[in-house]
Amino acid sequence: MRNTLRLTASSGKRLTVAAFSFFAFLSGSAVLMAEEAEGSGLNPLKTWRTDLALWTFVVFVLLLLVLWKFAFGPIAKGLETREQSVLDKISNAEKANADAKELLNLYQQKLSESAQEVRQIIDDARAEGDKKKEEILAEARAQAEEERQKALKEIAAASDTAQAELAAKSAELVTRLAGEILKKEIKPEDHADLLQGALNEISQS
Amino acid sequence: MNGELIDVAEVGAHVSDSDSFHLPEFLGGHIELPCIHICGDYSLQITKFMVIELAAALLLIAVFVPLACKIKSGKPVRGRFWNLLEVFLLYLRDRVIYPSIGEKNAKPYVPFLWTLFFFILLCNLGGMLPWCGSPTGSLAVTAVLAFITYLVVIGGGMIRQGAFKYWLHQVPKMDVPGPLSIFLKPMIFAIEVIGNLIKHVVLSIRLLANMFAGHVVLAVFLAFISGTAGILWLWPFVTVGSLGMSLALSCLELFVAFLQAYIFTFLAALFIGMAQHQH
To answer: Please, which contacts does B189-196 make with residues 24 or more away whose CB atoms are closer than 8 Å?
Structure first.
């Protein structure tokens, strides 16, 4: 590694000396320049120019008048107008917000009342429905009972009619049988036939 | 190490006012500015700083008149450049002028202080442009600006308090026995009036010193390059070092240009605010 740059103690010292020399050169030059500047009229406090002062005065005053009339005056007013507009908008927005909150409270209250009312209506409707249901059931029961009673009565009446018819038939049969019996002597086997014939007739009728 | 290596007059020509623009050869080289005959023996030699001031004034008109057209309706402006200008205006008004003078009294002074700030800023920034210069590096310019500020301060105070009362209020109320007050009050009056004048002189010197010194240092660093051109072993190091330092100092100068415009406007606003109230 012959070509590698090695920073040894002696080379460091040389660099430090070179750096100091460089800055000493710069500082020395600057000092000399300052001295020369003092002598050559570079001092800004000693280089007064009346023409430049008058020119500056005129340019600045004219600039001020032009900008005041056409730029900064309107800008200042425009900014104030905008700020006032923003303040008004904020104020209106705050008022609208307060109104909205008040309305919200009102609507929430109304909503709550409506919910209560709806609940009441539902309860009433349910109660009314229950009542109607009970009435319909009672009516149906009553009608059913009435129909039943009517049917029972009809059954009873039919039974009575049947019994009366049976009795009449029985009496007629008995009368006819008795008449037949009275016309001939009855043997045991006749007795049995008569009885069986009467029973058949009864069963057929 | 020889001071003659660097031409001081050459360095000074780049910092101070001159009757010509010194451009590179491909841009026309040395451009002499005209001398305008006014009347009789009077004539006006146009200088580099005069041209830069005029350019700054025209640029301000070209920029702020269109901005006024956009803002005066009260609607917000659109576009980064216009919004940036509005930020400057609002910052100066709300953070510098209103707190210094008071919102109620400040409104008539806002256009003046805005003009002052932007004019100084552009004059300061003129020094950052190649082959131009900073007019605020000249006492004639800063002194006139301070003088106009002084007139506004006194005029504002007299309008606000009344001409007689303004000068009367230069002396604070004191419980001093009669014979002693005959000597004391005129002395205090003189101290206050001279003090007020000195404050404005300092205002001009502060701006001048900051702008002049910055540009001189920049010019010196660049002059080292030509100054060491004859020393071959040193020249590359000096060139690199000088360019690096010039770049760093240019960044600093850019900051100083804004800072000094701000300080001048801020102090002007403070002085106007102080003149609005009696001691």
So the answer is: B196/B150, B196/B153, B196/B170, B196/B271
